[in-house]
Every structure is written in C-alpha cells, then in structure tokens.
Write a structure and sequence with these properties.
By secondary structure, this protein is mainly β. It is about 0% helix and about 50% strand. It contains no helices and 15 strands. Strand 8 (about 90-100) and strand 9 (about 105-115) form a beta hairpin.
C-alpha cells in the first residue's frame, strides 16, 4: 500500500479455432488504500473534555461523529465535551471517524467511550442560625456517592461519616456573629466528585 496510484497493464488474448489471435489491452488504476485511525480517549467522569488525535493514513477529508447527537466536526483532530446526565449509571458513546481520500476512497473507525456519572452532592440542615453553642443536624441527601468528606468551616477535623444524619456543634466565643461555611464533598467509586455548601450563622 503506497500513497500514490498504481497502474496495472492487463491484456486479454483471444484465440480462434483456426489459430488466429487478437489482443486487447486495458490499463487499470488502483487508488491508495485509506486507513482510518485515531488515539482513543480514556474513560472518565462527566463532564469529560475529549481530545482526539487523528492517526489516519491516505485521507485528506475527515468527519467526526461523537455519538451523542451533537453536530459532527470536519477538522483533522477533534475536541468535544461529553456529558452524562445520570447520577447513577455509566453512559457509553460511540465515537466514529470517517476518513476520505482525494480519490473518494473511504474507511471508518469506531471506539466506545464510557462516561461515568458525576454525583449530586446535597445536604439539609435542621437549623442554620442560632446562639452558641449551636447544635446542627446535617442530613446527607446526596445521590450517587459512596465516599463523603464533611468540612465544617470551624477548624475542627473533617468527617468522613456516611451516616444519613449526624450532628455538629458550632461555637462562638467572641462578640460578633460568625458565619461558618460547611461543605460536603461527595465522591463515587470512579473518583467523580461534586461539592455542596451551606452557611451557618452563630
């Protein structure tokens, strides 16, 4: 396989019963083969920004289909953001590259890309303002997470509790109100994360 056309001279020799002969000649042109190829993007968390490097041979026109209903791209290399709108389940996209030569020879390559869901971090408070010491029940309402990191904003140690409800005491020993920003980072088995926040006034 070369990147220039190859020519083959083909001859047909005809013989009659009487030993007469004739020869016809035809030149056949064979265009170069096209091989479509690109470097796959590793599976990852939503939203995933995928960069696709074209490794095709013998083509000069390209079309990328990302398998998510978005517009195709006709660039040599491609970049696209994939979103998984589920909080619990993986979504698989089939990324297709069509490669076309100046001779209209074609080839296609496909690879699947798995997008892991981003969890939804959310929590509720039974009280968000009050006098010191303020006892607050924090209810974890996250979806899709298996690991949790609570940061209370008051310099006390973080908590990794997976309890649906736990309690924390907030103190104010000064003379002015204090606002503690409490956060919950939620993480999946694939390392996908989301963080939510609430302010607590003491």
């Amino acid at each position: 396989n070369t990147q220039v056309s190859e020519f083959y001279n083909t001859a047909l020799i005809a013989f009659s019963d009487m030993g007469c002969t004739d020869t016809a000649y035809q030149q056949i042109q064979v265009y170069p083969k096209v091989v479509a190829d690109y470097s796959p993007v590793p599976d990852g968390c939503s939203p995933l920004n995928g960069v696709f490097i074209n490794q095709s041979v013998g083509a000069n026109q390209f079309e990328w289909d990302f398998g998510d209903g978005s517009n195709t791209q006709t660039t040599i290399n491609a970049q696209h953001t994939f979103n998984n709108l589920s909080y619990l389940n993986d979504t698989t996209f089939t990324v297709t590259l069509f490669a076309i030569s100046t001779f209209n020879c074609r080839d296609t390559v496909q690879n699947n890309l798995i997008i892991h869901p981003k969890p939804l971090s959310q929590f509720a408070l039974n009280d968000s303002a009050g006098c010191s010491p303020l006892s607050v029940n924090l209810e974890n309402q996250s979806i899709g997470g298996v690991f949790f990191n609570w940061v209370y904003g008051d310099l006390t140690p973080n908590s990794n509790t997976g309890d649906s409800i736990h309690n924390h005491l907030y103190f104010n020993n000064g003379g002015v109100n204090i606002v503690y920003q409490t956060s919950l980072e939620t993480e999946t088995n694939f390392g996908c994360t989301d963080t939510s926040y609430h302010n607590i006034f003491v």
